[in-house]
Amino acid sequence: MKFFSKLFSTVVLVLAVLILFPLIVNAQSISYRPLKYGTNQNSMATGYFVQPADVVVRNHAYYVTMQIKTAKSLSSFPVKVIWVNGHAPRNIRRVKDRAGNSHLYYSFYARNLNKRINAKLAIDVPKIYKAKHLISFKFKTAGLPQLTSTKKRHATSSSHKQAAKTPTTGSKHSISQSQTQSQPAKTTKNQPQRVATSQKQPASKQPKKTAVKKPASTKTPKQAAAQPSKANSSSQQQSEKPAKAKAQQSSDHAARWILGSVIGFAAVGSGIWIYLKR
Question: For the domain that residue 133 is a member of, what is the CATH number?
Fold first, then answer.
């Protein structure tokens, strides 16, 4: 078991060295000043920040790693970084040394370290001090490599693409120009024949006049517009005739029913009167 544990620890150590070796080699140490936000005065937290900061070029930007050290008497990790350069801090690591002091490591990306980098801190010392503060950092950028802007890279790539496309377009234009130049030679050969044929035709012949046919109907627009109204009136009259006939039939039927009922009542009444006299 001891052999396997030692083997595992050595493998982890080798992997850590292989991963961190490029960062350690390419990293540059730069000094900075913690300032009160919006001023050129040193911040009260200057004693907590460890000099210098480590800078690495990564993803076409500066990757900055800073360290905050606080004494054991101020409790465990009393300072917290809320945000830095407009974003949450990256790769946060908390380490304690043998004396019990707290070491807080954090990193952030920045495209320009010549301007001030702002951050927000939360300080919590139990029973002594608790507050949130804004702070600014001013870095000394002497010796840092310049970053290649994304605009230049896009411009160069687009220029290479255009240069690759231009030969094909030039050949197309040359082919089209050669075709257009060859076409007039064909047309000039046929022109004299057309002129000769036109001269052979006699001038006395004239095109026949085509008779213009008159429209069949000579009605004026007013008469044409009046026709639909007449048709509508005739249709209305035809529809009104069955309605009148039905009304007359219903009235005759009602009169017959009333007359029959009166005659029936009279006959019944006369029969009763004759029976009572007997």
Answer: 2.60.40.1850
Last residue of a domain, one of 145, 166, 191: 145
Structural domain boundaries enclosing 260: 250-278
- Among the ranges given (145-154, 207-216, 233-242), the one the predictor scored with the smallest mean pLDDT: 207-216
Boundary-marking domain end, from 110, 145, 180: 145
Instruction: Decide: 122 and 104 in contact? Cβ < 8 Å.
Output: no
In a domain, 197, yes or no: no
* Residue 57 CB-density burial (10 A; 0-12 exposed, 13-18 middle, 19+ buried): middle
Residue 164 has a pLDDT of: 54
Q: Using a CB cutoff of 8 Å and minimum separation of 24, what contacts does 92-97 make?
A: none
Residue-wise pLDDT for 132-188, tens only, equals 999 999 999 998 988 976 565 555 555 555 655 555 445 455 445 545 454 544 444
What is the rounded CA–CA span in Å between residue 119 and residue 137?
Answer: 8
In order of 25, 44, 142, 158, the CA distances from 30 in angstroms are 15, 21, 8, 36
d(CA 142, CA 32): 11
Residue 81 Cα distances to 56, 69, 115, angstroms: 20, 13, 20
Percent of the chain topping pLDDT 70: 51
